[in-house]
Amino acid sequence: MTPAAGELHPLSAFLRPWFSAGTPEISRLNAAARERGLVTGNGAALCFVAPRAGAGGYEEHAFLTGEIATRPDNRHDLFNALIWLAFPRTKALLNRRHVAALREARVRASPVRGPLRDALTQFDECGVVVAGSRPELWSALCAHRWREVFADRREELRRSTRFLVFGHASHDALAAPFVGLCGKALFFEVDDAWLRLADQAALAALDARLAALFDTRRFTPRDWQPLPLLGIPGATADNERPDYYDDRRQFRPARTMRPGSSPGNR
Length: 266
Known about the structure:
Helix content: 40-55%
Order of helices and strands: HEHEHHHEHHHEHEHHE
Radius of gyration: 18 Å
Number of domains: 2
């Protein structure tokens, strides 16, 4: 079932403005998209529609027609639509990169999805943007020093860092969170001025930076930093206890990541 505003998980709370008149239906989603002139990766006017039989693949259909398949009363699809509204530049850029990669594979007659498409899909479904003014905290998260960052330096983290869940599948999962729920994160260093921005202005600035990054980088799945979502302060009342971070089902020791991974930190 689709959620009401009061049922949104704390990590989904930045989407609450679209619930001001209740759970948004397709007609209201489309009105918001038209008002803002949103487009898909080919510049086609964005429109949320019920899935059409024989419409072809999601990404190419959206690219060519502007139509985003959105099942009525479906939580997963609702969150996908809301992320289109929250991060329109990035979603359009992801759509364009997906279609370009698909067409490139056809030219090569390759049946393999390839690491770029896998990375784009992972971020689209489960991505998290970590925006902060203390890059050393991000470095500690990349080293899986979970208790140090989330518990010992909790107040510093709260003051300096925002966690924006981009992946619509993660928002869907947060409606019924479970131990081990994990996102695929990247980091942007921001200044204190950005941290003081109102939510919508902060989102717009982050959307522009994120789209620019996806336009220039050829990602692989190894570029994403695993981030246990229920470890983020405020994600669950249980994580107020420092010993919460001793649970290795969620907070696993570090693995070695290749040089240049976890991009976007500058």
